[in-house]
Each structure stands twice: as C-alpha cells, then as structure tokens.
Amino acid sequence: xxxxxxxxxxxxxxxxxxxxxxxxxxxxxxxxxxxxxxxxxxxxxxxxxxxxxxxxxxxxxxxxxxxxxxxxxxxxxxxxxxxxxxxxxxxxxxxxxxxxxxxxxxxxxxxxxxxxxxxxxxxxxxxxxxxxxxxxxxxxxxxxxxxxx
Length: 149
Hints:
This protein is α+β, with helices and mostly antiparallel strands. The chain has helices at about 25-30, 40-70, 95-105, and strands spanning about 1-5, 20, 35-40, 75-80, 90-95, 115, 120-125, 125-135, 135-145. The protein has three helices and nine strands. The strands form three sheets. The protein has a four-stranded mixed β-sheet. The chain has a three-stranded antiparallel β-sheet with strand order 2-1-3, with no helix packed on it. Strands 5-7 form a two-stranded antiparallel ribbon.
C-alpha cells in the first residue's frame, strides 16, 4: 500500500515521502498514530504542489542570503577589549562580541551560532571570521581586535 508519511518514521522514511508499506503495518500502526495517510491521486497532487512551493521559498531565501553575503563580504568590524601587556587579552573575544559589533557598526543582526571563528581570539590583531547565511552561503569578514581605551 502506498502512503504519504506525515512524520519521520524510523525504518520507513522521512516526512512528505511516498513509501510502499504492507497493508497491516499501515492499518495497524501508521494510520492510528497519524504517522501516514493513504496516497490517493488528490493527496499526491496536493503533496506535489506543497513541495514545489517549499522549493520556491527555499530558492528565494537562498537568493536573499547570497545578496546579503555579497553585500557584507570583505567588510571589517572593530572590537575593543581590555588587554594586558604584549597585546594579550583578559579572556577572549567570542562570537557574541562579534555579533554585537556587526549590529552596532554594520546594522546587521546576526545569530552568534552562525559565526565561525577559526581559533580562539586571545591576542590583539586582525582575524578572519566566517558568517553562515544559509547552508551553502558564507561570507568572510575581518575582525580588528584593538585595545580598549
């Protein structure tokens, strides 16, 4: 029996997939738990339209992310921190400070979890930081770590 999965089912498939399962498994397990619905012509057409709309939304979101990444690529932000002798910092610069600097200096609100530091920033200087806008869309900015005055 062909069914459309409403949720991920271990061993059967992921949400939105059309899978072939035995009649008893569908009637006794999938349907009562609302994990799947029978795959008839109307529901298959509805699923196809839903998947096309979802693909279109994802494509436009990726285009917006590419535009934003191109706009921000190569820019730099300045982070002022307390430092000791020889340019050694008290603590380190985290993604939170970089996100705050992006918001203040470039007007870009960015989730700190999408900021990738190659190494911990514990010295004054210039560092390159990756910003993930979308799974395949990244931009590189420079972070200038300077001593607080």
